[in-house]
Specification:
Number of domains: 2
Shape: globular
Pfam families: Aminotran_1_2
Protein name: Aminotransferase
Structural class: alpha/beta
Number of helices: 12
GO molecular function: pyridoxal phosphate binding; transaminase activity
Radius of gyration: 21 Å
Subunit structure: Homodimer.
Bound molecules: pyridoxal-5'-phosphate
Distance between the termini: 52 Å
Largest sheet: 8 strands, mixed
Family: Belongs to the class-I pyridoxal-phosphate-dependent aminotransferase family.
CATH topology of the largest domain: Aspartate Aminotransferase, domain 2
Number of strands: 14
CATH class of the largest domain: Alpha Beta
Length: 407
């Protein structure tokens, strides 16, 4: 048994939360509401192609050499400036910025920095499945903080902190939360930092959707209230430019950045040069904010199309009403198991993919919800996919009397 030689963190008997997140189906009429895919039509293909060519032409053979782990200079300066506006920290300096291989590596590095086996950490319940998968590797003891309409329940969290002062990390997605779409209120952002100062823990503020607001006004980041360097702000180019280059970035106290850089060196030695240089040249010659504007305009109409389809085919269902981001969150009758339905009905019969709720809970114990993505599918697929979802629920739910009239 080779598995006997594996480290305990691999847990050979336990399926990764990410396996099956993007099930491959071979049906031609497959519709995916699964992963957080951006709209392909809006990738700036020509501009990125040109930027890649410029990166190679300017550097010549050197473009293919090893480079500094800190990444290209102009890109770093761009991020210093972006941190001032996007994160709202006017004093940010170069030694507080770090490039990562996507936001995902940022999460994994922070977990590696802070978590010994069994260490206590708190997460929103539900929370981003990829973060849980990264934390799982370090075998923490999880504590759940429930979600309210204005973000994590901080009254409940404070009780937890009193009972478990050993909690050292809180992971949050405050803007258009993955998976529920909820945005944390300003009051809670401030209070969260006060709690971190009082109970001595670090906050990982993960915000890849922060730029993608379709309704209302942007709120100050949690990091902007940070007084003791306890907040690590994490962002990414994946949702606003392309996920293919695997480029994320974070803002943290210089001591944290130094320690994370040391850990990153052992993982991959450097930020991949050509993808980061390509993004650098793209940013020098194009207006990223203008591009983000076009994403916002399109995604808002897609979100509205999905809401309209839900009104039509799933009237009365409990659905989130996010102000931005990529996802809607559905809550179904207690007793419905959306994981079972995915494999037994949605994929084989409806040719439809979504992400079942259990993936988003640290203890995999809530089965009656699902996350659906509206940015990747076409308008036709949004309408057709929600109709298929309704069909599936008619066949498998006590709510069928309502839905059956709609399809
Ligand atoms: C909340 C959140 N964090 C991090 C990531 C990872 O993104 P990437 O590694 O592509 O930057 C995602 C991707 O969906 C996400 O939703």
């Amino acid at each position: 048994m080779l598995e006997n030689l594996f480290a305990s963190r691999v847990k050979p008997d336990e399926k990764s939360r990410l396996v099956g997140l993007f099930p491959e189906t071979h049906y031609l009429d497959n519709i995916s509401f699964g992963g957080g895919a951006p709209e392909e039509k809006l990738f700036p293909v020509e501009e990125l192609k040109e930027a890649y060519q410029v990166a190679v032409k300017r550097q010549g053979a050197h473009a293919f050499q090893y480079h500094d782990i800190r990444g290209p200079e102009y890109l770093r300066q761009f991020l210093v400036e972006r941190a001032k506006t996007l994160v709202g920290i006017p004093e940010v300096t170069d030694d507080e910025i770090m490039l990562t291989a996507g936001g995902q590596q940022g999460i994994e590095l922070v977990a590696k920095l802070l978590l010994n086996k069994g260490d206590a950490m708190a997460v929103e319940a539900p929370t981003y499945v990829g973060a849980l998968a990264a934390f799982d590797t370090f075998e923490p003891t999880y504590f759940n903080v429930s979600m309210e309409d204005d973000g994590a329940d901080l009254t409940q969290f404070e009780l937890l902190l009193k009972a478990h002062p050993e909690i050292k990390l809180f992971y949050t997605v405050p803007d258009f939360h993955n998976p529920t779409g909820i945005t944390m209120s300003v009051a809670k952002r401030k209070r969260l930092v006060e709690l971190a100062n009082k109970y001595d823990f670090i906050i990982l503020e993960d915000t890849p959707y922060r730029d993608l607001r379709y309704v209302g006004k942007s709120l100050p980041s949690v990091k902007s209230f940070d007084t003791e360097g306890r907040v690590i702000f994490l962002s990414s180019f994946s949702k606003i430019l392309t996920p293919a280059f695997r480029l994320g970035w974070l803002v943290a106290d210089p001591v944290v950045v130094q320690a994370l850089t040391k850990l990153k060196l052992t993982e991959d030695l450097e930020v991949p040069y050509l993808p980061s240089a390509t993004i650098e040249y793209y940013l020098q010659n194009n207006d990223l904010d203008e591009h983000i504007q076009s994403l916002r305009a399109l995604y808002q109409t897609k979100m509205e199309a999905m809401m309209a389809a839900i009104d039509r085919y799933l009237p009365g269902i409990k659905v989130s009403h996010p102000e931005g981001g990529f996802f809607l969150w559905l809550e179904l009758d207690q007793g419905i198991d959306t994981t079972k339905l995915l494999w037994e009905n949605a994929v084989p019969e409806q040719h439809l993919v979504y992400v079942p709720s259990e993936s988003f809970y640290a203890h995999r114990d809530r089965k009656n919800g699902m996350r659906i993505n509206f940015t990747g599918p076409t308008y036709e697929q949004i309408d057709d996919g929600v109709k298929r979802l309704s069909k599936m629920l008619v066949e498998n739910s006590r709510q069928k009397e309502i839905f059956v009239k709609a399809i």
